[in-house]
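Database export, one record per block. Field names are fixed; values are copied verbatim from the stored entry.
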Amino acid sequence: MSFLNDDAPPIYCRVRAEYLYDLQSHHGEYEDVVVFGVSSIHGRAIGFHVITQQGAQLARVPISALVHKEHDPHLPLHYLELWDCFSYQVAVHQFNYLNLMRCKAILRDKQIIEGSYLYTIDWYGNHDAENPGDGGFKNAHVIALDCGCYCALPNNRIIWHLPGFLSNPVRPELGERPEYLTNSQIFKCEIDEKWTVEDSYKMFYEDKSLEPGEKLSPEKRAELAKLRVLKDTNWLTPDKEK
């Protein structure tokens, strides 16, 4: 887990040269680069760290600047990346199962372009990054699109191609979509007041079910702790406990 910057699997590709000249010149030209990391500033587009063949290192290059083959027209940034960064705290991970898996990416303008998975960017550390619901967390899968561009899209904009598993694949080019709902739940397992644990030092302790309405008061807990000490010091035998 990283703050502001994180390493990423290297990508050997090209950068649109105008991004090296503050978008003022060299339009239509390209330079070879290696992309080796990402930068996350809350509320801004994902930035990528690159090194050019001249040995210059550039930071916070947007994904719209990167191509793996020359591509026109130049797709705008908001077509290729739907959401700004959710936090300064960022994590990059390449899922082995998805590595180079083929997929169909649904861009902002509803273009559907096939591509291959590279890695996933995700965020943590605040409500925007971690809460469920429409305004909550979204990760960004970085995809090398067949058109030559890259995109960084969330789960609901990608349909994966897995012929050995899919028995009912949807066809987004025909307007088909899964009818799933956005999760709005927070799942916790430590919420049932009915259950507690036995008051002992045992490694394999027993779970205890409290009667309806029963609560362990501070006095009751102190009493149980005192009994535990007496047992541990052999001052309280089973007969005396009765």
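Remark 1: The chain has two domains: 2-174, 195-237.
Remark 2: The first strand starts at residue 2 and ends at 3.
End of record.
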